[in-house]
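Quick log. Single chain, no ligands specified.
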Amino acid sequence: MGVTEMTKANPHIVRCFAAAGFLIPCVLSLVIFVGDIKIQGVWDWILLVPWPTAALLMSAEGGGAVGRVIAFALSVGANMALYSCVAWVVSFCYRRFASPAPG
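-> predicted structure:
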């Protein structure tokens, strides 16, 4: 893989991670709200591992429906940013250590 292919592949992984950072909270919140699952005990860890910014949802306590929507949007946006940062680190490590040396 040449330099031009690597620079093209770099944003692709970031876009894929950002999409995962968006889809994972949406799917988890859909399962929680539709399935009426109480988040306690083991469920805390099951929720926090793929959605580490879920703690931002606590800011909507007592804020009504609009407050919950705003908190959810902020949480999803923060999760996308976090996943994108992880993708940049993965991409950098891949380019640095796994790609063949030039020449």
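The chain has a mean pLDDT of 80.
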